[in-house]
Amino acid sequence: MSIDPVQPALRVAFVHGVTPAKWARIWSARRPDAALQLIPGDESGQLTALLDGRAELAFVRLPVEREGLHLITLYEETPVVVVPKDHAIAAVDAVTFEDLAHENRIDGSHALETLVELVAAGTGVIVVPQSIARLHARKDLTYRPVSDAPTTTIALAWRTARDGQDAADATEVGRDTAAHDVGRDTAAHDVERYIEEFVGIVRGRTERSTRGADAGAPEKPVKRTAAAKKAAAERRAAAARGGPKKPGAPRGKGSRRR
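Now predict its structure.
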């Protein structure tokens, strides 16, 4: 993965707990000429880099303010309770909120590092997404799933207003030379193309597939599948009647045996 803080081709922010390395590796393999910059952030400011223009895309933990954003949901995170290794909860496979009724649930307003330190000190327990527990794993702590806690969702977000912003940028540099304007327009087009390609990677598109191909491809396979189902139904019906009629078998009242 190429990370260039000065001139990245594409900048992707991600909230703590998300590991974008898989997608970054695929990007680097397909786009070795286009540097990718990854920008980590905490949950309280997970949209900041995207909204202030420091990133073109962001992996976020829902819920977030959706206005002005494209969002695709990616996966669910399992909630877990983090406890010291010698805690009674460490002896079971999973717990419920009822099991935690008498535990001191530490206020989540602290920084994650602080929360982990408080749990290790025996002050209380915390319930967090499993990805967060893994990120802050320690030898003196463990975690167990909370079976009746709501899951959290990770999504990929990018701005819907990029076209308007790019137009404003073009006006801003209108005093520059024509050659410079052409260069800026080309760069803006490249960024839009890179966004589309990265979204495709996250959605699992192969290197050969395109948005257009994905949109148009389903028609014929759907028809073939329907035809196959109809043929199978006809075969089952014929079998129930005693088997299919042989070619040339007499039909109707006017037929005679010879």
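The mean pLDDT is 81.
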